[in-house]
Amino acid sequence: MKHYIQIIILTLVPCICLNVCFGDEPSKSNATKSTLTPEEQRAINKGLEWLVSQQTRSGRWVGPNGRYPAAMTGMAGIALSCEGSTATQGKYSANIRRAIDYLTAQSQPNGLIGSQQDDRYIYGHGFAMLFLSQALGEEEDADRRATLIDVLTRAVVFSGQAQTSNGGWGYVSAKEGNDFDEGSTTITQVQGLRGCRNAGIPVPKEIIDKAVTYIHRCTNEDGGVIYSLKSGGGGRPAITAAAVSCLLNAGEYDDSCVPRQLDYCKKNLDNISNSGMGYWHYAHYYYAQVKYREGGDEWETYRSQISKRIISEMQPNGSWTQGYNGPVMTSAINLTILQLEKGLLPIYQR
């Protein structure tokens, strides 16, 4: 009981420095009126039905050969939440509850959400934080809220301890990975931490400051963000799109790197038909978030083009098999992109 009271007190302490870092949290009142076409809505409905058909009895989703359950469950849970369902109401409430229960049960004593047997458990930890932090904002049951608060509070501590000396994150913790870090896992952590902060979980400002500095150091003169500080080399469109989304989510609206990164993304990603680059779906998972945040004619043009491509690639059973790490990941990515227009999930709102 004493531990529970301490957690509640912590979540009520005003975190002024974090408001400066992350900016104000959008509320559901900021959700935009959806203008989805009938074709888009049909594709979403069919895709979500396929996605829920892949959920196991334990509440998890998995990648090929049963791998990456925490990451897959977090991403699938986000896609279902974008539909408007919560753990207590909506068409997919039972599926969301089972996903929440699975991930909270995976919380380790050290705060990791997932298993250290997973060779890329930092991804799973980040996506799990993001999904559970969105669920916390809608959770009405006192006991379930207490569980989520405890899990996310310890998860934030783990993220801080797993951060490398450069300020990034790798596939595993800094200690286990010889201080290796790279861009995509860093973005996953920052977005998950931002979701936690918005849900009232204390997030030390220095963790985010170090991560923002890391992204700056990874940004080339042309705006492209490299794979890792240790690797050097040219920029990568997918990681650059993720970096822009990360900086904007962190409240860095006046960041000096953002204009250069945006220009780089526009040169490499505005052509939706361009399949020559690697990780197309992952790149547009983040670039779509950036475009939606900008809004206006550019978003409408982009949304129309990417929706047509995504829908054209859907399989007869409602899944998407392109991309990597199996159809669950690609389907969750595409369904999230298609549903951004709804503006229902706080982390993605303008």
> Count of helical segments?
14
Shape: globular
Distance between the termini: 38 Å
**What is the β-strand count?**
0
CATH top level?
Answer: Mainly Alpha
Poorly predicted parts: 1-30
User: Can you summarize the main beta sheet?
Assistant: none
Helix content: 55-70%
Decide which structural class fits the backbone: mainly alpha
CATH topology-level fold name? Glycosyltransferase
What is the domain tally? 1
How big is the Rg? 19 Å
Order of helices and strands: HHHHHHHHHHHHHH
Average pLDDT metric: 88
- Can you tell me the CATH architecture? Alpha/alpha barrel
Strand content is under 5%
Short description:
The protein is built from 14 helices and no strands.
What's the structural blueprint in terms of helices and strands?
Layout: H1 2-12, H2 16-22, H3 38-53, H4 69-82, H5 93-105, H6 121-138, H7 142-162, H8 183-198, H9 205-217, H10 237-249, H11 257-269, H12 280-294, H13 296-312, H14 326-339
Helix pairs in contact: 1-7, 3-14, 4-5, 4-6, 4-14, 6-7, 6-8, 8-10, 10-11, 10-12, 12-13, 12-14
